[in-house]
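DOMAIN: structural biology
WANTED: fold as tokens
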Amino acid sequence: MKLDIPYRNRSEAGRFLAQALSNYKSKPDVVVLGLTRGGVPVAAEVASALQAPLDVVVVRKLGVPSQPELAMGAFSGDGAQVLDQEIVHAFGLRDKDVDEVVKRESAEVDRREVLYRSGRPPLDLKEHTAILVDDGLATGATMLAAVAFIRKRLAKKIVMAVPVASVEALGKLRAKVDECVCLAAPDPFYAVGEWYWNFLPVTDAEVVKLLEDTAKRTLTRSAA
């Protein structure tokens, strides 16, 4: 597999990632999960290539109040929370400060859960292999929260799959998952977006359409 980065876009990254995951193709116990929102276009390509169902994990970054782009942790739909204590201590944040950010972000998590699922229940992960996909890892905070969320849903195996990640993030995640698939770990690493030519924000409408289209394909395959 010839890999050139930056990737053209998330879809191309997903196709490359699917090649690295080809041993999971057509396995009945495999479920692909995209971290919202940026991971969903990548995950959709993986799900299509592997002929697997697609679902989402709604995770929100918890930004430092004075620097919202800097992640001090992440938060998932079931309340799974991961905090980087070094950052919390470095900024002198109190429990009250963290709780205020969690409260604000939990409202957005709830909104997305309702919108993206459109009445569909989450896919059953018990005794399944869950392939967790994101468009990249900088700090790894959102993926850590996603892994904690999936563990609670009793998946038998968790595979973390990303097109690009920082060395530091991979160090945090390797021991937390059963398998780690990362196509590139450039160093130095400043931001996920620098490894894509097109890194436009993913919209709610795009996420909903990708989920609906993949669900239709899954139903068609099942009927056949």
About this structure: The radius of gyration is 17 Å. The chain has a mean pLDDT of 92. Helices lie at 10-20, 39-50, 85-90, 95-117, 141-152, 167-173, 204-223.
